[in-house]
Specification:
It is globular and about 50 Å long. A four-stranded antiparallel β-sheet has the order 2-3-1-4. By secondary structure, it is an alpha+beta fold. The chain has four helices and four strands. The chain has one domain: 2-Layer Sandwich (Alpha-Beta Plaits), CATH 3.30.70.
């Protein structure tokens, strides 16, 4: 079985109690329809159109639906989980207890899990 956690995140998870919350990014496995669409767009070598963006978004929503339903189920059961989808990147940013992150790593639709890191601008924002 492929390791889904980057090494530094694995160390952090091992050192934290199961109820400790952590922010991570779930990188999802591409569905067949997403893979086909991405290959077509790569061959095109032009900016993608609004319709193509919408097609990608729809393909992501369809492939992520089971995982999102699972997250909603956990929330209904009283777990405190915050998440946000980044459809064009085929990923979900999530803040959840360590035990839930470990549970999510066992899913087939999760390709890998990265620690969510702050992003800083190298130049001043105008």
């Amino acid at each position: 079985m492929k390791k889904k956690f980057e090494k530094s995140l694995q160390k952090k998870l091992d050192s934290l109690p199961p109820e400790q919350k952590l922010s991570v990014i779930l990188l999802l496995r591409n569905s067949d329809s997403e893979e086909e669409l991405l290959q077509q767009l790569a061959k095109k070598q032009k900016r993608i159109t609004r319709e193509e963006k919408e097609s990608l978004k729809k393909a992501f929503q369809e492939s992520a639906a089971p995982l999102l339903a699972h997250l909603n189920q956990l929330t209904v059961q009283g777990e405190s989980i915050a998440y946000r989808c980044a459809g064009y990147l085929n990923s979900i940013s999530i803040t959840a207890p360590v035990w839930i992150i470990r549970e999510l790593s066992k899913r087939d639709d999760v390709e890998s899990i990265l620690e969510d890191q702050p992003v800083y601008s190298l130049e001043p924002v105008r």
